[in-house]
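## tool: complex_structure
## caller: assistant
## args:
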Amino acid sequence: MSIFLEPIPMGENALWLVLPLCAAVGAAYKTVRVRHLRWLPMQILGLWAYMLAGLVALGLALYLLQYYVA
Amino acid sequence: MARRDKSHYRAALLAGALAWLIPGAGHVYLRRSARGVILCIIIHALFWTGVAFGGVFTVEPLKQRWWLAAQVGTGASCLATWYKQELTRRSIAEDLGIRPTPPEGVAEAQAWWDAYTRELAERKIALVYPTDAVARAYSGIAGMLNFMCIFDAFMLGLIGRFGEPPPEPAAAKARERRAG
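## result:
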């Protein structure tokens, strides 16, 4: 298998790849926004936690919606 | 004053263009080198991880134009992947004896897609769920993040803000210390 040419097969565990994706989004956003770079690691960590909490809450809300309404 | 505004406009355009071509380069040009290097690493890592997951057809101008519009934000990396994808598609079409792009008619286009996707599957380079979603999300979000960086570099250049922000005044520092 040659990387960058053939796709890598994935299963249902691909959902975990949202964790590094959120971390990268938080890091890029905070790198642009933060006033001093020494605050960057904590700001990234905080935003990452916010994003994950938001995604979990959204997933839970949609699950409950389809469980009780649909 | 007018001359300074014009030079700011030129700096803004240059910063924006550099930020598009090489993610992070706009910030390096604006003397925010540490931020530029961090952005360069993050955006390239995200884009190339997506391409590593999805292969050469992660950038797909025929059927995934919205994702392509997002991926184009990564500049040279996206153009290089697009070029490689074009070469691969043309080589497959040549081997099959078909045109490199789908023909106009509905039936002809369907036949073209059938032959083309069958060949992709045989060569094991067809991009299918869930790999396609992950690969395009990674590379597309990298491009969208770089659009944000391009905007930031352009605006910083426009207002003539070179270098890192100055240290805060003593009063603000003291307030911050009190707040913990």
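## assistant note: The longest helix of chain A spans residues 40-68. Chain A has one domain: 19-68. Handing back to user.
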